[in-house]
Design goal:
The chain is of the alpha+beta class. It contains 3 helices and 6 strands. Helices cover 23% and strands 42% of the residues.
Length: 145
């Protein structure tokens, strides 16, 4: 079945719901899902900063993983992370928002790979990496739109 805007909107709503409790805990907001693409944002708050006043590296890793997971969910199936790699290239402070974007570089029958970047609201690169997912071949929904 060919995916359409209604389908991707449904995936986005699913990923922003109680089906994603960790993302809700951290304050992630998935703002866009398209074929092989995911975009997730978070507003920086004191409770996700480390003792030096930087966005915690674990939050950055989770944000990139969530963007990649959103891109993987665009397949319409449940996926799990096989591996992730994130390189921190700029300090995570002095701005109000982080934006992670993931783009597919490979989508096989079971394995998919996504390049992921994190920028601040000014477009400055904060981190970049690569995430690999395993497709469980379990539909996200009981029936597709």
């Amino acid at each position: 079945m060919e995916k359409n805007d209604v389908f991707y909107k449904r995936v986005l709503e699913y990923r922003n719901s109680e089906h994603n409790p960790y993302g809700q805990l951290l304050g992630f907001h998935i703002v866009d899902i398209q074929k092989g693409y995911g975009r997730v944002e978070i507003d920086l708050k004191n409770d996700i900063m480390n003792s030096l006043g930087f966005a915690h590296g674990g939050v950055l890793f989770s944000l990139a993983d969530s963007a990649s997971g959103a891109a993987a969910a665009s397949r319409g199936t449940k996926n799990v992370t096989l591996s992730g790699n994130l390189n921190f290239v700029h300090q995570g402070r002095g701005f109000r928002k982080l934006i992670a974007e993931a783009r597919s570089v490979h989508e096989g029958k079971t394995i998919s790979v996504y390049n992921t970047t994190i920028h601040n609201e000014n477009g400055e690169l904060i981190a970049e990496g690569s995430y690999t997912y395993y497709d469980l071949h379990i539909p996200l929904f009981d029936q597709d739109l």
